[in-house]
Design goal:
With 463 residues, the protein is an alpha+beta fold. It has helices at 6-9, 116-120, 130-152, 210-220, 256-277, 279-288, 293-302, 310-318, 336-346, 397-406, 415-422, 435-443; strands spanning 2-3, 18-31, 35-41, 49-54, 72-81, 89-100, 156-157, 163-164, 176-177, 187-188, 191-192, 203-205, 222-230, 243-252, 306-309, 351-357, 373-381, 385-392, 428-434. Strand 5 and strand 6 (89-100) form a beta hairpin. Bound molecules: 4-amino-1,4-dioxobutan-2-aminium adenosine-5'-monophosphate and magnesium ion (MG). 4-amino-1,4-dioxobutan-2-aminium adenosine-5'-monophosphate binds at residues 168-169, 208, 210, 231, 240-241, 244, 246, 248, 386-391, 430-432, 434, 436-437.
Length: 463
């Protein structure tokens, strides 16, 4: 007998096969006629497969009649067409082996609807729910789609370091990495002496792989890095995590317009793949989480993203009737409410904002001829706001040096980054897509903590 997944067992083509299925019982229902129905799920699809267990099985009274949600079993049986509504197949069990019981009294996942807040306190068990199983599959689909897209476009996947000495975004939100004893660190003139730390200098968890991946773009052309990034920003919002995954493509000989075009095609590809490959899960999100989500995604695949200079966005926001909590003024960073207004209300599709004031963006972005703005671009989408941040990079040595000094960075710390501008400098550009923001947008989930397996936020690192 062949071991197959529940997803496969649910397909009509499987009728007639004798198979082995393994998974967890979602529910048990006993018929008066002396047999039981089990709903079995193994995570391969949202839907369960119904297993019919006849009373003649030797462990029927002793084990089957005690099965409750969460118990794990192996079922051997034959797949047949199901007369029941809402399912095309069912399995008639020849044997059911029980592996692990799950005490019905204490098992935290009861049949009722649990709040997402409660499920965060049992993050080790929430993957067993419909919602979190569906999120895991969509997240996997997005990750695969990211790799497929860039591989097909001829990009090289580059692995950039997690431990770093440089603050790419210059926002001072880095987690320190140290092996010094916090109670008794070595000191030199009152200060902690980091020359005696593991790396001989202060080190941190990276906020972005960009600076390192630029070295590869300036050698092999088109590259991307995709990994965890860390930000110690103390923001308790529904779209910030302290640890999140980011994919960062970086392209030599690309200007900002080329980069916008690539990012737009990239987002459409991811969304299209999820709609095509996770149709059942997306139906679920549309029914249970956000009834506009599929229409929004279908709209995105067909739409042309708006391209809007920051300065024009400020004018639009200023002249709108909306009462914003945060004031709008040229030179201020946009808040989530402003980003959402533009994509949700004003344009009702993704908006690529570009040419931001130099004062609110990092040192590495290319200065425009106006001297006040840089070649930055952010992509804003309905509900989530910023999903992508990117720019054309400053490739002119002298200008970059000035920008570093302006932002109080020590050029000596970035000597290797500056070298890229001394030897064979090229125009180049790139962007970063936050994986969780993408999954949040695609599934319609309200809180980013629910689209990463084990969220890390201020005060939370359990599991
Ligand atoms: O805009 P950010 O800070 O850009 C960079 O890090 C650049 N170095 C990227 C590049 O050009 N290679 O971050 C990029 C994206 C954001 O648009 C957002 O989607 C996500 O990363 N992001 C976060 N996601 C979750 N939690 C946080 N705290 C995030 N901060 C940024
Ligand atoms: Mg940003």
């Amino acid at each position: 007998m062949q071991k197959i997944s529940v997803a496969e067992a649910r397909r009509l083509e499987s009728v007639g096969r004798e198979v082995v299925l393994q998974g967890w019982v979602r529910t048990r229902r006993d018929s008066k006629a002396g047999f039981s129905f089990l709903e079995l799920n193994d995570g391969s699809s949202l839907g369960n497969v119904q297993v019919i267990v006849r009373g003649e099985l030797p462990n029927y009274e002793s084990q089957i009649k005690h099965l409750s949600p969460g118990c794990s079993v192996t079922v051997e049986g034959r797949i047949q067409a199901s007369p029941g509504k809402g399912q095309s197949t069912e399995v008639v069990a020849q044997s059911v082996t029980v592996h692990g019981a799950a005490d019905a009294e204490s098992y935290p996942l009861q049949k009722k609807q649990h709040s997402f807040e409660f499920l965060r306190t049992i993050a080790h068990l929430r993957p067993r729910t419909n919602t979190f199983g569906a999120i895991a599959r969509v997240r996997n689909c997005v990750s695969r789609s990211i790799h497929n897209f860039f591989q097909e476009e001829g990009f090289l996947y580059v692995h950039t370091p997690i431990i770093t000495t440089s603050d790419c975004e210059g926002a001072g939100q880095m987690f320190r990495v140290t092996t010094l004893d916090p109670a008794n660190p070595p000191r030199l003139d009152e200060e902690v002496d980091y020359t005696r730390d593991f790396f001989g200098r202060p080190t941190y968890l990276t906020v972005s792989g960009q600076l390192d991946v630029e070295c590869f773009a300036c050698a092999v052309g088109k590259v991307y890095t995709f990994g965890p990034t860390f930000r110690a920003e103390n923001s308790n919002t529904s779209r910030h995590l302290a640890e999140f995954w980011m994919v960062e493509p970086e392209m030599a000989f690309f200007d900002l317009a080329d980069t916008m075009e690539l990012a737009e095609r990239f987002l459409k590809r991811i969304v299209g793949d999820v709609l095509g490959q996770c149709a059942e899960d997306m139906q679920f999100f549309n029914q249970r989480i956000d009834d506009t989500v599929i229409a929004t995604l279908e709209g995105i695949v067909q739409s042309q993203f708006v391209r809007l200079p920051y300065s024009e966005a400020i004018e639009i926001l200023k002249s709108s009737d909306e009462k914003f909590e945060f004031p709008v003024a040229w030179g201020h960073d946009l808040q989530a409410e402003h980003e959402r207004y533009l994509s949700e209300r004003q344009f009702q599709r993704p908006v690529i904002l570009f040419d931001y004031p130099r004062t609110i963006k990092p040192f590495y972005m290319r200065l425009n001829d106006d001297g006040r703005t840089v070649r930055a671009m952010d992509i804003l989408v309905p509900k989530v706001g910023e999903i992508v941040g990117g720019s054309q990079r400053e490739e002119r040595y002298d200008v970059l040096l000035e920008r570093m000094k302006e932002q109080d960075l020590d050029p000596e710390d970035y000597w290797w980054y500056l070298d890229l501008r001394r030897y064979g400098a090229v125009p180049h550009s790139g962007f970063g897509l936050g994986l969780e923001r993408a999954v949040q947008f695609i599934t319609g989930m309200a809180n980013i903590r629910d689209v990463i397996p084990f969220p890390r936020t201020p005060g939370n690192a359990e599991f």
